[in-house]
Amino acid sequence: MYFSKNLSQAFTLVFALLAFCAPAFAQKSSTTATILGIVADSATLHPLEYAAVSVYPKDSTTPVGGMITDDKGAFNIADLKPGVYRLKVEFIGYRPKIKDNITLKAGNNDIGTVSIADKSNKMKEVTITGQKSFVENKLDKLVFNVGNDVTSSGGSATDVLKKVPQVDVDINGNVELLGNANIKVLLNGKPSAQFDNNLAEALRVIPASQIDKIEVITSPGAQYDVEGTGGIINIILKESKVKGINGTFNISAGTRVENTSLYLHAQNGPVEFNFSVSGNANLSGNVPTSSNRTADSAGIVQTRLLQSGTGSTYWYGYRSQLGMDWDITKTDHFSVNLGYFFHGNQNTGSLNQQQLAYGVNPIDALSGRNTTSGDGYGGADLTLNYKKKFKGEGHELMVFARPAAYNELETYSRKNAEQSVTVSGAGGAQHEHFFEFNYGADYSRALGKDIVLNVGAKATVSRINVDANHTVLDMGSGNYVDDPTFLNNYANYR
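Below the sequence we write its predicted structure tokens.
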């Protein structure tokens, strides 16, 4: 009786607490606002894809949210505080549209269709003050302004490229431009050795917070290398023109990919220095696999194959650069940039299997395999540029020299076991040394409003040395020893 009475009091107390806390929880879950709608052409009412939508507080010029419309012209900007906002819509070939005094309440706020007019349509004079649009369509290229996209503050260059029109990035980080994978990627308008080996891994090392804009050039001029027949993607990093010493530091953690970056800038008169370092890594984890396959005859199992294994992948990378810019005169400019980079990956895997056979001659055989592999690629490049500007827009001459040296090391090893006893093994390594020296000149001049003359000349000297070997597991010592019949060393000059 005493126990029943106390139990009844306990239930009463619990229900009272739940009744008190439920409104608080309900209020907390609906404290943010979401604004959604559709951007359409004012004349045809057709939805517009890739239109840039930005949301500003009522009395602020700094956006607190934004995105690019999807293929149906829809936008959905979440995690906003309830209040009064201003909405701005921009699209290539259309006049910017601003909607003021939009009151957002907690939850979804559908503002319907936002119509924007073609620039060819006549309208009263409007003065609009704001940032550059997300996407600019210029004479010879398309420019995606990353600095104006608040959704690109985290992640890497790979994540930013997924938002750029005409660029496709698959799940493995491979990049295509208009369906063509034969592209050239530049850094600040210059080739970089870090993109020559594994483009997907090199892009992961560049944090999005350091990118100012990305230029997409589908018809490269003479000043670009001919390797990128599918087009050019030029990643331009942020710069600071503030005198004195300043810098930024960014870190992103708590996800499968960790990112960090540091940027420092110093300027005194016509000379300025900049230094940056960035890196990232993914958190590795084991991925288990298993299978159970049987073969039967007349409904009776004759053989069975049981397999189980695990695999893991870990990758990491970093890059740093030190540069100097010197405005010798108003028309003469000299710059030097030294960069160092490294990115690599490590893979491990194991597979155990048991093969069973039933009947007159039963079999119970155990076997296994353990494998490891790795790839590391790194090096340094130096860029020297001299630019001479002449009278007239786009009339300039640039002379450059770019020496670069980098190394790649690939390794692998494998052990085979039977009945839980190691019976054989093999391994190997390939070490590649690259040296390349590019030098040349580019000349450009505008011949008219829509015509630009580009003339360039370039020479390349390179050397490649490769050392490769194959090893086998010595069962007596347990060590891997070189297989003398499988050595491979050569050098290539051009």
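The mean pLDDT is 81.
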